[in-house]
Amino acid sequence: MFERFTRHARDVMRGAVEHGEREGARAIDTGHMLLALLDREASRASFALAALGLADRKESVRGALGEARRRGGLTRADEDALAGLGIDVSAIVHRVEETHGVGAMSGDRRGRGWWSGHRPFSRGAKDVLERALRTAIGRRDRHIGDEHILLALTVCPGVPAEILADHGVTYESVTRVLYGGGAAKAS
């Protein structure tokens, strides 16, 4: 599939791997992909993110990703569902971090003998790539660009979609910016 990626999409995937390696993550996940998109400049996805006002709020997105990672990658919907069962996720995170240190639930393996070789893509990251391919095919684009990865991140369930939506970046708003159909506004 990667032979169908544009240079910008390949750069996003390389950036995602770099973010994962820096974190010492076991696998490259959708959060790493979002971080790599935020790093991009002069691409279709970076244009869309800037047009939607996210260029000025990158640190807010990075912070939200960090907080979600502290919670073990749980979305607010996951947290609410567990709360409905009487499970207080913040209390669990607090107790785990008291015992094992801040960020213990993030899956960070740095300094614990983790092999620094190839890291696989998580199931969620693979789903985003598949959705990006389907989006490109649906738009009759010959190649998968970073804009298709961004669009896929907005619709695939998980923390990045939740964070992007919180910042006014949705499938519909990105589509309007990239392909027309009215003014796009981030909230």
| Spans where pLDDT lies below 50 across 5 or more residues | 109-115, 183-187
Q: Major sheet, described briefly?
A: none
Mean pLDDT: 87
Q: Architecture, according to CATH?
A: Orthogonal Bundle
Structural class of the secondary elements? mainly alpha
Q: Can you tell me the number of structural domains?
A: 1
**What is the CATH fold-level name?**
Double Clp-N motif
**Ends distance:** 35 Å
User: What string, H for helix and E for strand, traces the elements in order?
Assistant: HHHHHHHHHH
What is the number of helices?
Answer: 10
- Rounded to an integer in angstroms, the radius of gyration calculated over CA atoms is 17 Å
Task: Indicate the multimeric state.
Answer: single chain
Question: What is the approximate shape?
Answer: globular
- Report the CATH C-level class: Mainly Alpha
| β-sheet strand percentage | under 5%
CATH superfamily: Clp, N-terminal domain
The total count of strands amounts to: 0
State the helical fraction.
Answer: 55-70%
Structural overview:
This protein is mainly alpha-helical and 187 residues long. The protein has a single domain (2-179), classed as Clp, N-terminal domain (Double Clp-N motif, Orthogonal Bundle). The protein is built from 10 helices and no strands. α3 packs across α8 (146-155). The longest helix is centred in the N-terminal third of the chain and has 17 residues, at 7-23. It is globular. It starts with 6 loop residues before the first helix and ends in an 8-residue tail after the last helix. Mean pLDDT is 87; it is low at 109-115 and 183-187. Residues 2-187 form the Clp R domain. Pfam families: Clp_N. It comes from Streptomyces shenzhenensis. This is Peptidase.
